[in-house]
Design brief:
Blueprint (H helix, E strand, L loop, with lengths): L1 E6 L5 E9 L3 H6 L8 E8 L8 H10 L4 E6 L3 H9 L3 E8 L8 E7 L4
């Protein structure tokens, strides 16, 4: 698994990214279909103050480069969907109930492949 933290000159966190082999353990327990590719982007977060600076794209590239990968995104997160679409991901139709702190919401996969 790869986890990277971006910090400013004073050492304050600006963003983080995490990616690794798929599927995540919870995916099997949740009964979702097998992952479409063996690499998952687990998280990518950038502070609002760093939006639009290119930091998100740099973190994405550092974590997965041009590789085929997928991620889970909360339904209705239009800003994130636009970001990922700009970087070659497409939304898959099936939506699944989220668990943990997101219980009551739904999420779906986004996928990037060389043929996407």
């Amino acid at each position: 698994m790869c986890t990277l933290l971006a910090v400013d000159d004073e050492g304050a966190a600006l963003g983080l990214v995490s990616a690794g082999p798929a599927p995540a353990a919870w995916e099997g327990r949740a009964g979702v279909p097998a992952p479409p590719v063996p690499l998952q982007l687990f998280q990518l977060y950038v502070l609002r103050a760093a939006h639009g600076t290119g930091l998100g794209a740099a973190l994405l590239d550092a974590a997965i480069g041009p590789a085929d990968a997928y991620l889970w995104i909360m339904d209705g997160n239009a800003r994130a969907e636009r970001f990922y679409a700009k970087h070659g991901f497409r939304s898959l139709a099936a939506s699944f109930p989220a668990g943990g702190p997101w219980t009551g919401q739904h999420m779906h996969r986004m996928l990037r492949t060389g043929s996407a």
